[in-house]
Amino acid sequence: MADGGTASDNKVVFELVAPERLLASEEVDMVVAPGAGGDFGVLPNHSLLMSLLRPGVIEIWQGAQVTRRIFVGGGFAEVNERGCIVLAEEALPVEDIDLEAARRRLKDAQDDLGEARDDLQRAAAEREIRIADAQIQAAGG
């Protein structure tokens, strides 16, 4: 919640901040995030946690169903007494993923990897490949 409030005992305050904008600020029943070590769920009264995020999809749950799916290209998640805050390197609703653009991004990154001249260029291309591949998977392609 943008006002800095706290969630009720049976809700989680979830905030998702991307470089372009605040994508979510709401009370939810659960958030499932793509942690670097595997997916993790955040429920009310979750223990404190800090995690890097890998490219993947954040699922926002209300009741027994996913109400929103948001792709993140990596970032950082903090679970504290207030709730779950995600700072994403890039993010967009899954339904906004352009599958053809993601496929072009993957091909370009693969080309960049083949042309990389040093470890820094290789690492950047490999990161782009992971993000593009995760976007394609999220979009069902």
Characterise the protein shown here:
About 25% of the residues lie in helices and about 40% in strands. It has about 140 residues and is α+β, with helices and mostly antiparallel strands. It has 2 domains: about 10-95, F0F1 ATP synthase delta/epsilon subunit, N-terminal (ATP Synthase, domain 1); about 100-140. It has a 5-stranded mixed beta sheet with strand order 2-1-9-8-5, with no helix packed on it. Mean pLDDT is about 90; it is low at about 1-5.
- How far the N terminus sits from the C terminus, by CA atoms, comes to 34 Å
SS-derived structural category: alpha+beta
**Order of strands side by side in the largest beta sheet?**
2-1-9-8-5
Low-confidence residue ranges: 1-5
Form type = elongated
CATH architecture of the largest domain: Sandwich
Computed Rg: 16 Å
Name the CATH superfamily assignment of the largest domain: F0F1 ATP synthase delta/epsilon subunit, N-terminal
**Helical content band:** 25-40%
Treating each run of at least 4 consecutive H or I residues as one helix, how many helices? Answer: 2
In short, what is this structure?
This protein is of the alpha+beta class and 141 residues long. The chain is built from two helices and ten strands.
Topology, please?
Elements: E1 12-17, E2 22-28, E3 30-35, E4 38-42, E5 49-53, E6 56-62, E7 65-72, E8 75-80, E9 83-88, E10 91-93, H1 99-115, H2 119-138
Parallel strand pairs: 1-9
Antiparallel strand pairs: 1-2, 3-4, 3-6, 5-8, 6-7, 7-10, 8-9
Helix pairs in contact: 1-2
